[in-house]
Amino acid sequence: MSEQIDEPIGVAVVGAGYWGPNLVRNFQASQAFRLLWLCDLDLGRAQRALGPYSTVQPTTDLATVLADPRVRAVAIATPAGTHLQVALAALRAGKHVLVEKPLAATHRDGLTLVEEAERRGLVLMCDHTYCYTPAVMRIRDLVRSGDLGEVQYVDSVRINLGLVQRDIDVVWDLAPHDLSILDFVLPEEIRPDAVAAHGADPIGAGRSCVAYLTLRLPGGGMAHVHVNWLSPVKVRTTMIGGSKRTLVWDDLNSSQRISVYDRGVDVAYPDELGAEERRDLLVSYRSGDMIAPALVEREALGSMVEEFAGSITTGRTPLTDGRSGLRVLEILEAASRSLAEGGALIPVGVSR
Amino acid sequence: MSEQIDEPIGVAVVGAGYWGPNLVRNFQASQAFRLLWLCDLDLGRAQRALGPYSTVQPTTDLATVLADPRVRAVAIATPAGTHLQVALAALRAGKHVLVEKPLAATHRDGLTLVEEAERRGLVLMCDHTYCYTPAVMRIRDLVRSGDLGEVQYVDSVRINLGLVQRDIDVVWDLAPHDLSILDFVLPEEIRPDAVAAHGADPIGAGRSCVAYLTLRLPGGGMAHVHVNWLSPVKVRTTMIGGSKRTLVWDDLNSSQRISVYDRGVDVAYPDELGAEERRDLLVSYRSGDMIAPALVEREALGSMVEEFAGSITTGRTPLTDGRSGLRVLEILEAASRSLAEGGALIPVGVSR
Amino acid sequence: MSEQIDEPIGVAVVGAGYWGPNLVRNFQASQAFRLLWLCDLDLGRAQRALGPYSTVQPTTDLATVLADPRVRAVAIATPAGTHLQVALAALRAGKHVLVEKPLAATHRDGLTLVEEAERRGLVLMCDHTYCYTPAVMRIRDLVRSGDLGEVQYVDSVRINLGLVQRDIDVVWDLAPHDLSILDFVLPEEIRPDAVAAHGADPIGAGRSCVAYLTLRLPGGGMAHVHVNWLSPVKVRTTMIGGSKRTLVWDDLNSSQRISVYDRGVDVAYPDELGAEERRDLLVSYRSGDMIAPALVEREALGSMVEEFAGSITTGRTPLTDGRSGLRVLEILEAASRSLAEGGALIPVGVSR
Amino acid sequence: MSEQIDEPIGVAVVGAGYWGPNLVRNFQASQAFRLLWLCDLDLGRAQRALGPYSTVQPTTDLATVLADPRVRAVAIATPAGTHLQVALAALRAGKHVLVEKPLAATHRDGLTLVEEAERRGLVLMCDHTYCYTPAVMRIRDLVRSGDLGEVQYVDSVRINLGLVQRDIDVVWDLAPHDLSILDFVLPEEIRPDAVAAHGADPIGAGRSCVAYLTLRLPGGGMAHVHVNWLSPVKVRTTMIGGSKRTLVWDDLNSSQRISVYDRGVDVAYPDELGAEERRDLLVSYRSGDMIAPALVEREALGSMVEEFAGSITTGRTPLTDGRSGLRVLEILEAASRSLAEGGALIPVGVSR
Fold first, then answer.
1. Measured between alpha carbons, how far is D168 from D165 in angstroms, rounded to an integer?
2. Chain C within 8 Å of D325 (Cβ-Cβ)?
3. Matching CATH topology for C2-130+300-320 and C131-299+331-347?
4. Whole-number Cα distances in Å, A85 to A103, A105, A107, A326, B30
């Protein structure tokens, strides 16, 4: 048994564009994997990504890669529009699959992939990289352990001077990060059940460059996401307000990424009072210390790659499986619909 | 004439609660005014606000104050629900009036005040204090001079652990600051023409404690305001994105309140191309220097008090006149309606 | 007895220049005091400091003030060179005395005052304002309770664009703050026992405008103070490294003034080893959480004034008594000597 | 000629410890070089540094490397104590040499290397990496172009929780960065001419863990360096005060590394006055804008490697040549002497 584990998993990366080289680097650094191929329609691009010193083989031919019996896993970093086709081919060739976010171009395509993988008993994992940062792992612990109490609101800001994409708007480009993090840290029972989206295209790019998503959480809470391609300053901050404590995650503050405040508003509802008097609620304010937990710096992609390996060798569901990718897609599609309908509130997760 | 100017203006402050003492202090510090009365229903509170060393006279009787011929101006810092009554009495007694924000409890009440003041040729000024900070004065200059180019988006955040009010929600409590600043700095032609509001009351306070306003600006721009009573950290940041430059105002960074970035996205539309090709817009990115203009620190209330004096002595319209207070009220009422209607977009300023 | 306590202490402020008005404001706000006089050689300045609404009496005649039997305490905010004369007169008139820092122009003068006060059983207190900030009070607790372990090093930076003084250098102008804080928070047994000073006058002002003090602490520790009039940015940071924890005080970060890090270097010395092997010390690194204790914001001068009142009514020694002022003077004089001798290490506290 | 330039320079890296892998990565990324060998006494370490996918050859045998005629350049990242021997062997084998900082263990050893390289007409370059950051390159321009005016003072802080070294103190470990930067940006005529050093070893490590260097600059200026292994927070800030402007470099603020302040103190000396009156100098204060110049992010090691290539192919002196390494060594040795002599001021650069 242990030998099976010790044997590195043969893996191929498909796509040598923006993200592929990061996957290449992390698979090379992992003892759990043996990177065999880098596949791209543009051979020169694959070669440049590998550099002149690598023994990894570049290729333009996906079929060859999928036919290689040493290849047990495929990581896909091609444009979202091609995810369905490439991932489906890989799954049908019996390979475990890691897919760059978003899982697919549409929820329907994503569902096809999830069902195919489930049918075949293969791992289908979505590379929601941020979920594997030490900060988000810790946030998940803090939220799920109840340290924050009940989650009351979430406010997430992800803005910077970003590449204006030609095929997708800022919601589809940036919000998948926030939505996948939300999906990762929030308990299942308070996952968003409706979304309203407002966007603007003040530069005439043909699609929203600035957008705000308001997500309704079951139980009266609210999550809000601000994404923006036009901001000259980079901000990556998420606040999670809980009934006991409130957490602020500032991803750009490397010396203090997470701050947990024992500070907030408490409301007491005297039991003995009638409905009338209950309006005079008793509000009190806590003003306690702040704790910034120590985090061990580790590259998120490295942890993500280990999670992929762990899922393959043990057969367990990865932390960010295809279904999490599907939930993100569902919200993105609802947000697009809301944008088209002038900010109307669109339900999500009805079928869950 | 000059003697008329030199003679200090007799003034009375009505309301010795949270804000009144600040007005007292600033009227006392101003050479343009002679503070004569501090009026409050609670005499002890008025006395405590004045302290044991003051020669200013405390009183509970507004009629006495208004009957005092030395009193030419009245500053009102009572709860919003009483503004109509107190201000109307003062105007009818021929006094110039300064009113704490919001101008009145409703747009209709505010309009009554504005019309009364205009009929009598008296100054009616709204104490939109933030507009008189050196930062906002400079921002107004930068926006109106065209230095930023056309305003594309505004994002304003005003959050901290705030007093949960018993009669108004967080929108009415905090957003007047942002809305009055917007009214102050934006050119008239791009004042908001519609608003959508989303709020949450996760602590069961009976009113929104967290809220987001999305304001549509004529010409394709958008303004967004985030107000929150529950945040353990205080944030006071406004970003104004322009076609030429983008400004960030961080009111808590006393050493660098304003940063102007020559950084952004430019889109060119080649003239010779057909409609089809024009979709391939040419996007380019500017990455220039940032300039933080020097600001002279000055207490906003001091400048506000001088503006009140200047309006009285010269007869000119104050920078933050009753009409600006009205416009703020109109947006607040529309926001309340939007909140009640689940975030629907509500038009404003139709009648302007 | 309780009546004696309840009766406000009659107090006079001498000096209406830069600092005097702050004392005036705080004595007026204190229920423990009744401010009777503001004395200054320039009557107009005293009148302007009081403003047109005050019932406090301005005067130019110190003798009148000292002859007033209602005056039990005198607060002196005149130039340092006059402290000896004014304070001595006040003490000889039987008044309790509060003196602006530094206690006197020289250690010898200061000693005269201390001895006079002790002989007469009067309070002589030095207005080391910073010691009364909530932050420094908390730091004192943290250091003295042993929470930080043994103090290993202190690094203090106090720089900004400051007024180039005509009669004193930057060491005498700014370092008294740092030295009085050190005196306040450090346990007696590790008070500095030697100082070396380096300074520069790069603008030709005739005295040091930038200076560094290195203070030797008994037991192998070191404290270091950086003072600078020429810095365009304001920095007010003190780090106190302890064997258990390290504290960082950033006085300009109002939302997180104190941060206590459970992070550092531990060295173990295996007992069983010979001297030779002991060189191979065992170094280990702690990397724990950071805690930012909640501080209640309170104006330091208000607490200082209460301490003065408490010392007068109970007869106890104030936290910052004349002797603490003396110790600061001794280090300042040694620093001046070191500057004159090219940075030589000058002993202090020999006679303690 | 152009062919000679186009042909990549064969290079070997010696030392696969902490820094070597960074050199390996950057030589691999450079088109100007062809990395042929990675040499380390520990073959496994060399293999691990290369990883399982590299075609670069690991070896333990320096002689083989030096005998390889394809190798034209050698980069040395071994402990400082071995620099003399390894670099001398490489130079004698006719190879151009890049040496990790410090150039050598002693000034005398460094001089031997410099003279050997000059005799043979070979490049000897010191890897003062920080000098090749975009920030320091820009600072050099700003200082040397006169934009800051005359340099009046420099204050440099480089502190964090660092590895307590077993063979060198914190001065030799960290100060070479600051000293090489100073050497790089300051005009030749104001290079430090004396140094005083104060250190402490509060943890009993057997060598200074906290230290302060005061450097005298010809013309009345001063530079100061604070290095510290024990600080729980990381600070990397350098302030350069000039007669016209003052620059602050905060290397950890990736969004605003350099800030140039048009703020400071001006002193005027009226010509017509006698010596006596001239003491009444006219001090004025400038309070202008701050500019944060845009910097293109680029990895310093990449630029350093290009500089090495440029020096080899064109024969010009590299920006950080052996002589700059020598000047740094001279100050380090003087600092050690000052530490041993209780902070005495030790002259440097006498022989220049």
1. 6
2. no
3. no
4. 12, 11, 14, 17, 75
Q: Bigger pLDDT: D297 or B94? A: B94
* pLDDT of C39: 98
Q: What is the pLDDT of residue C94?
A: 98
User: What is the ipTM, given to two decimal places?
Assistant: 0.93
Confirm or reject contact between D56 and chain A (CB < 8 A): yes
A85: part of which helix (H) or strand (E)? Answer: helix A83-92
Partner residue facing C290 (CB), from A256, A287, A288: A256
CATH topology classification for D131-192+204-299+331-336? Dihydrodipicolinate Reductase; domain 2 (3.30.360)
- Architecture of domain C2-130+300-320 in this structure: 3-Layer(aba) Sandwich (3.40)
Partner chains of B (3+ C-beta pairs under 8 Å): A, C, D
The label of the residue with tokens 């967290």 reads: B210
Amino acid B318: pLDDT: 98
Residue A2: closest CA among A313, A315, A318, A316:
A313
How many whole angstroms separate alpha carbon C45 and alpha carbon C16?
A: 6
Q: Are C171 and C335 in contact (CB under 8 A)?
A: yes
- pLDDT band at A8; cut points 50, 70, 90: very high
Q: How far is CA B70 from CA B10, B14, B17, B96, D294, in A?
A: 6, 16, 24, 12, 58
Amino acid found at C145: S
Specify the 3-state DSSP secondary structure of B156. Answer: strand
pLDDT band for position A87 (cuts 50, 70, 90): very high
Q: Which of C53, C234, C255 sits opposite B28 (nearest CB)?
A: C53
Q: Which residue has the tokens 């320096």?
A: D62
User: Sorting pLDDT into bands at 50, 70 and 90, what band is A10?
Assistant: very high
Q: Does residue A311 have a pLDDT over 50?
A: yes
Measured between CB atoms, which of B28, B52, B254 is closest to C51?
B28
CA-based angle D137:D139:D144, to the nearest 5? 100
For chain B, give the mean pLDDT. 93
Length of chain C: 352
Cross-chain residue pair A287–C293, CB shorter than 8 Å: no
Interatomic CA distance for residues C127 and C129, integer angstroms: 5
What CATH superfamily is the domain B2-130+313-320? NAD(P)-binding Rossmann-like Domain (3.40.50.720)
- Long-range contacts of C235-238, Cβ-Cβ distance < 8 Å, separation of 24 or more: C235/C157, C235/C158, C235/C159, C235/C160, C236/C157, C236/C158, C237/C155, C237/C156, C237/C157, C238/C154, C238/C155, C238/C156, C238/C157, C238/C178, C238/C181
Question: Inter-chain contact D153–C228, Cβ cutoff 8 Å?
Answer: yes
- What local confidence, expressed as pLDDT, does residue A44 receive? 97
Which residues, listed in sequence order, are joined to residue D249 by a DSSP beta bridge?
Answer: D238, D258
- Residue A342: name the closest of A147, A196, A214, A231 by CA: A196
Split at pLDDT 50, 70, 90, the class of C267 is confident
Q: Which of B222, B314, B259 is nearest to B138 (CA)?
A: B259
In the structure encoding, which two tokens stand for residue B3, read together? 């003697």
CA distance C110 to C80: 11
Backbone angles phi, psi at D298, to 5 degrees: -150, 140
- Say if residues A13 and A33 touch (Cβ distance below 8 Å): no
Superfamily of domain D2-128+300-320: NAD(P)-binding Rossmann-like Domain (3.40.50.720)
Q: CB neighbours of C59 closer than 8 A, spacing ≥ 6? A: C37, C38, C39, C43, C46, C65
For residue B335, pLDDT beyond 60 = yes
Cα angle, residue D18 at apex, residues D13 and D22 outer, rounded to 5°: 55
Could you give the 3-state DSSP secondary structure of residue C21?
helix
DSSP C137-204: HHHHHHHHTTTT-SEEEEEEEEEEE----SSS-HHHHHHHHHHHHHHHHS-GGGS--EEEEEEE-TT-
**Other beta carbons within 10 Å of A243:** 17
Token pair, residue D4, equals 């000679």
